[in-house]
Amino acid sequence: MIQSPLELRHLRTLAALRDTGSLSRAAELLNLTQSALSHQLKLLEGAYGAPLFERKSVPPRFTALGGKLLELADAFLPRVAETERDIARLAAGAAGQLRIAVECHTCFDWLMPAMDAFRERWPEVELDIVSGFHPDPVGLVHQDRADFALVSEVDGEERGIHFYPLFTFEIVAVLAANHPLLAKPWLAAEDFREQTLITYPIPDDMLDLVRQVLAPAGIQPQRRTTELTIAMLQLVASGRGVAAVPFWAVQNYLQRGYVQSRPVGPRGLYGRLFGACTDSRAGLPYMTDFVRLLREKCFLTLPGIRLL
């Protein structure tokens, strides 16, 4: 009897390669180095004596062998995940609640689909969003008014709070289609001095453009606020000002030519997102699975993000 070289990690690797479209992104999703992932695939190909996919195709084009293994992955991996969740429910109890507090307006662009997926996986967990946007969502966690918070900064001295790294993302300057600043390859702090800056109605220390770029340069442009991203983009498109938003939030509008964008600074401006919960809740199976789901869903659906 011939012993099969196939392991569960191989199926996960092939599924990640298909879902991400590249070796580098698959490695990032699986928390591996690209060389380690490539080595794993070559060993599997060596054992079967045939390639799994065409190396020069982007995205990878799977061979008949690779496609057959992907069929197995699609049939097998969901059952493994479901069984692992069932075991976790039996070991720790099924019921619970997960109230989420957010400090960023653009979180809703991706949070709701992730929550819908979580409800399917943990239907017995009561899932909800704490109403409104909160300048101190971690405070709500401390007060037991929320179970999980989405935040942009980590306080290493915050006692009793466990922080989960989620992802980093680019923040781009958004301008009207005929704006003179589009002649520049990227915008510096000084370029915002004579502009009206349109932002969400949140404190300046929660705005990456202000905190990282404008405040250090002593630039204080005129301001205008709105709670809705679409309203912000309408104001920008009509020449009422400029904005700085995550690339994922504006990508569709850029593709349609509704507005234009430029990087902020020669290397770009980047924000980060973390999850936060109390140390006592950090070990709950559904909390761990929620964080894993957030990272995976966002990595596969939001353009330009990198996992932390």
UniProtKB/TrEMBL annotation:
Entry keyword set: Activator, Amino-acid biosynthesis, Cytoplasm, DNA-binding, Methionine biosynthesis, Repressor, Transcription, Transcription regulation
GO biological process terms held by the UniProt record: methionine biosynthetic process
Domain of life the protein comes from: Bacteria
Entry-linked InterPro entries: LysR_HTH_N, LysR_subst-bd, MetR_PBP2
Keyword hit for Repressor: yes
GO cellular component: cytoplasm
GO molecular function: DNA-binding transcription factor activity; transcription cis-regulatory region binding
Subcellular location field: Cytoplasm
CDD domains documented for this protein: PBP2_MetR
Pfam families: HTH_1, LysR_substrate
Family label: Belongs to the LysR transcriptional regulatory family.
Name listed for the protein in its UniProt record: HTH-type transcriptional regulator MetR
Lineage start: Bacteria, Pseudomonadati, Pseudomonadota, Betaproteobacteria, Rhodocyclales
